[in-house]
Amino acid sequence: MKVGVVRYGVGNIGSVINALRKLNIDHIVITRESEIGDCDVVILPGVGSFDAAIRYIRSTLPIVEKLKGIKPVVGICLGMQIMFERSEEGALSGLSWFKGEVRRLQSRVVPHMGWNSVDIVRETMLDVRSGDYFYFAHSYCIYSNDIDPSILLGKTVFESSEFSSIIFDEKNMILGTQFHPERSSRTGLRLLSSFFKLCRK
């Protein structure tokens, strides 16, 4: 299996690469469309801003917009957010793979940074459990009542905000996390590993 990590042109993707190394996953950094064809899974990492990521994809890697249902995809933090229709953070439309709007956290403290738990709302083949802790670093989110329940897998509460922390579209093999699994120690690696195993079947 080969995993491709999209580089938006800004931000550090080193932690994602390190996680793949720990899992002994063959990987490349995607900077050209031709490289996507060689990948079994594509990761949209959580670096940069909404508009910058969308602008880069549409100008340099437009094939990414058509990946839903073609290749398994992991979206991390911002990478999950751009799968939706739009964001309060920017003016450009998202990939629109899923309905919904990314909104700013309605909390006294923004950004939400640090460890927090997830509440798993349905059973899947992914290795993740209610009460598992992951590392978060974000100011925007998709609120859990604004999302299609068929893709909602995990919710997290921060102060008065309950948001979608994991989405999973089994039909199209799309995993999205608002947290950073690559920075979440064994729990994050366990989740990624279970998704990659499903992609091999």
CATH domain class: Alpha Beta
Please compute the radius of gyration using only Cα atoms.
15 Å
Total number of helical segments? 4
Helices and strands, in order, run as EHEEHEHEEEEEEEEEH
Quote the beta fraction: 25-35%
List keywords for this structure.
30% strand, single chain, globular, Rossmann fold, alpha/beta, 8-stranded mixed β-sheet, 201 residues, 3-stranded mixed β-sheet, 4 helices
What does the model show?
20% of the residues lie in helices and 30% in strands. The protein is of the alpha/beta class. The protein has a single domain, classed as 3-Layer(aba) Sandwich (Rossmann fold). A hairpin with a 2-residue loop joins strand 11 (152-158) and strand 12 (161-169). The N and C termini lie close together (11 Å). The relative contact order is 0.17. The model has no long low-confidence stretch (mean pLDDT 96).
